[in-house]
Amino acid sequence: MPFDYQLIAGSLLVLFGLVGTINAYSDRRWPIVGLIVLLIGGGFLGWAWTIAEGQLVWTDLPDAIFRLIATFL
User: Fold this and answer.
1) N or C end of the chain: which has fewer CB within 10 A?
2) What is the rounded distance in angstroms from the CA atom of residue 60 to the CA atom of residue 65?
3) What is the pLDDT of residues 43-68, one digit of tens each?
4) Could you tell me the pTM of the whole model?
5) What b/e readout covers 37-49, taking b as 16+ CB neighbours within 10 angstroms?
C-alpha cells in the first residue's frame, strides 16, 4: 500500500506528541514541543488519508505495520 509509511509515522508521532504534551502539563511547563509533534503527526495522518482517497480505516494500521516489517526482512 502506498500509505503505509505515512500511516505508521503519523501514528507514532501523534502518540509521542500526546505523551509529551501530557508530561509537560503535569510538570507545569509549556507543551510547545509536544503540540508541534502532535500537529506534525496529524499532518502525516492527513497525508495518508489523502493518499488512500478516504478509504482508510483503523484496521489498516496493523496491516501497515506488518507490511512495513515484511519490507525490511
Assistant:
1) C
2) 9
3) 999 999 999 998 988 899 999 999 99
4) 0.89
5) bbebbeebbebbb
